[in-house]
What does this fold into?
Amino acid sequence: MLKRIILSATIIATICNIIIPSSVNAVSTETAVRNIIDEQQTRKDTTIESPDLIPINENIINLDDNIIKIMIDPGHFDHYNRSPVYSPYWESIMTWKLSNYLREELQALGVHADLTKDSLEEDPSLNDRGFSSKGYDFFISMHSNAGAYESMDQPLAFVYQQLSWTTIDDTSAELGRLLAEKVSEVMQTNQKGGIARRQGTGDWDRNGFMDDEWYSVLFGARYVGTPGILMEHSFHTNYRATLWLYNDDNLKRLAKEEAEVIYEYFSSIKPQQYIVGDVNNDGLIDSVDATQILVYYAELSAGGDSTFNERQKAVSDINSDGFIDSVDSAVILSFYSYLSTGGTETDIKNWFINN
It folds into this structure.
């Protein structure tokens, strides 16, 4: 996440105490961060009230507790943090695109996902971005990093301090590590993804301990009890990584993979209920679902890659033969016809077995 690029290596070494850490290469352990060009994200003038007084987003107030709820924060706003190695790239534009793609992929999995803002130009305060995650299962702030050396390309998840009085730090570290490693795998970075922690300099939550988060977005999310991370998607001071992140198709693939990681993590904690046959997750079983299965089957038959996520695969094998094919599509069409003519059985599996 580019805050300031300082061209003089002498000035960098003096001001930032930047070194080349021996632990940064291809490790999945917690990473030293002194080699990252960064300034503390200034806390804007936001009144820090009691967590109990911070409202819950109305989008989730009446949601079932078993529904996975994710708050996504597109880092920065407008045209912010231009890459010094590839001028068309702006961090803020990348994070806005990637956040929207991630929301779409999570929604396709049956997850409720919201953004901290409604447009690229909008710039909520950093605290408020974190506060908006109250009541959600997870908060993820999307970024790309900046370093003093162009060779640096490690995806980093900044996670919560290790805390003895809560378990949200465990979720932060566990899922942060999984996501950082997945980003590294998808982007094929030279340096393996890892996690890092940065401790703040003040007692912003007034708990009597100097244990706050360096990044205000993480402070805000932790303050309202939401596990969270700030995810640095490699470095936009690395030419190869920047070109990769500039490509929309790459961002869509990355969003799909990140959504799968998040979904798999939380579905093991919150068992999800599926409607078998509802491929597009609109609450109905109809010809649209049958068509999607046919398209999927045709793509695989032609040697293409699977386009279904894990939820779609789970609801598409109607006859339980281990395959998703034209037979399943035909069963859905028959069941749709049955329902359209007044049929009362709502479980397609039971209907299939009895017919």
User: Anything to note?
Assistant: Residues 1-29, 39-45 have pLDDT under 50 and may be disordered. Strands lie at 69-74, 112-115, 138-145, 156-158, 194-196, 228-235. The domain at 9-267 is CATH 3.40.630.40 (Aminopeptidase).
